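JOB MANIFEST
job_type = single_chain_structure
chain_count = 1
residues = 397
[input]
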Amino acid sequence: MRDVYILGVGQTKRGWFPERGLGSLVAEAGFKATDDAGIPMTKVEQVWFGHYHPAASLQFTSGQVVCEALGLSGKAGVRNIEHGCATGSVAMHDARLAVASGAYDVVMVAAGAKTCDSIQTRNTNETISYDAMSIERGVMIGHSDFEGYCKEYGIGDPEIYGWYEVEYWNAIRNPVSLVYKHPEGFLSYEGYCKLPINYWWSAPLRFGAGSTMVDCASALVLGTKEMALQTGRPLVKFAGMGFYNESSYYPHSLRHVKFEMMSCPSVKNSFDHAFKEAGISPSDVELYQPHANTPYITACHLDVFLPMFDHDIPYGSALKWYAAGEAKKGGRLPCNSSGTAKGGYCMAANFLDNNIENVQQLRGEAQSAERQIQFKKGIAMASVSPERTGVSILRRE
């Protein structure tokens, strides 16, 4: 198996663009990625495209749209990937293997969404079958688990606000963000506490603490070391990756097992696989992008990782990590450094966005000097989805 490197990355601005089609957004991100890699689009041999959920933009043959928009029709194959929040990680996992196997030397991984094309623009999730009663039907991860988790581990507004503050601080300093240079900044703790409690959750999660769905696209170009050397950029290698899956939309929660949603086996298995493949210790990680959809999804990942990072850190410390300032720049383990949830969240591209942020950080090219992390070992990690878990470890050479 060959080593695989990230040659180039590209993103569109996050927002709502009713005048733009999916192909337009993906083409923008894709050509930015090839420009970043210093190669023509014609070098791309295959494409993996993540699109979740096709019903949201009424486009089920998205690969053909993307192929045409990138100018690769008849020249490269395009695979459609749809796997919920894990969509980008599945696409990345398989595209990486395609290069590692020797089948291709240069491939592209892209993902995009047209949220504003949803039948109900106020809440795309309602269009794609998520709603307030989903958990009662056993088709959605159990938010009631988070309520019990909060009560047992002493998680309240200060801890939730810590996550919110880190997300917003970084989002305001990210040029592709929906709130870039937002003149009003983010809410103070007092202002945050005045937000209403989410009307159908009894957990202490307020409106404003979740992610903001947007129109957008992201793309990465992967290739061999030979191709990476030709870019003249700092080398960023895919050191390791794990991907494990469990039953769809967590019907396990119907078994009423305590905190089952918060401790899915797929999360630990994915971390173990990625670290074994990378040949490093969890304590070597210097920057981590956990799944930043909501605080409880972040906790699903960080509560598994923190005891691996430091054996003295107990389970239940994830959101306290934010409240204590340890997830901020300068903390023991900076997290969420792109502010994805508040900057504009694309379910299909979330994993790609996390890896794009890590590539830019590892190159020393964070799009804001204030957000740039200083590395000693050059190791960054990203993860996505509690029950369809993908974990990537990138290493600067």
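[summary]
The longest strand covers residues 236-245.
The chain is about 35% helix and 15% strand.
exit_status = 0
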